[in-house]
Amino acid sequence: MNRATAKGFTLLEVLLALAVLALVGIPVMQTVRENMANTHTLQQTTLARWVADNEMEQIHLEGRWPGREWSKHSRMQGDSEWQVRRRSVETGNDDFRMIEVEVRALAASNNNSQAPVLASLQSYMYRR
Q1: How many Cβ atoms are within 10 Å of 101's Cβ, its own excluded?
Q2: The pTM is what?
Q3: Domain 11-126 has CATH 3.30.1300.30
Q4: Could you say which DSSP state residue 72 is in?
Q5: Cys-Cys link to 85, which of 18, 50, 102, 124 (CB 3.0-4.6 A)?
Q6: Where in this chain does the entry annotate a coiled-coil region (predicted)?
Q7: Residue 85: helix, strand or coil by DSSP?
């Protein structure tokens, strides 16, 4: 076969193309890994927000103010158990209180360290 009519890539061209693909592939893989980690965090935050919304709605349905000190209990949402804290805070009007709700992942808060708050809500309630 004549060199002038030969078609295809030389070994050097193939190695250079592979090197360029490898250099481009590393940042792409890092971005994919970070997006996967962010997806888990977003899922946890969304579930915690639903727990906080449900807890706040339960407080309003009960029609009773929570105590002034933080009270804790756990709730199931999805496949996870959550630590829920709630309390009421006095305002200038005796018939009006601020209600606070915080939600943490229970598995993380069972360790010796305190888990971060994943969802926090404040609302106001009028005495009926």
Answers
A1: 22
A2: 0.70
A3: yes
A4: E
A5: 102
A6: none
A7: strand
